[in-house]
Amino acid sequence: MPSSTDRTRNRPRAAAPSCGDCFFRRHLLCALDREDACATFRPDRADGLRPPRQMHLAFRPERTDGTPFAFPSAAEQARRHAA
Fold this sequence. Notes:
By secondary structure, the protein is mainly alpha-helical. 23% of the residues lie in helices and 0% in strands.
């Protein structure tokens, strides 16, 4: 059975992005004179410029054991600091 390093070694690598493949370069919006892709590289696709996918925000369920951001009452504070 081949090891995982053998499988990754034989896999064809994706071509590195170049400045010529960038949306900004192809639409004459780039002011940089480079050959390699820069930090603002965006692929030029048929459907235009799309922002990169971002993580989804997942909300936690609310607590049922009381108000989450309530301050303790004066009596509760006195009891805590009485010791």
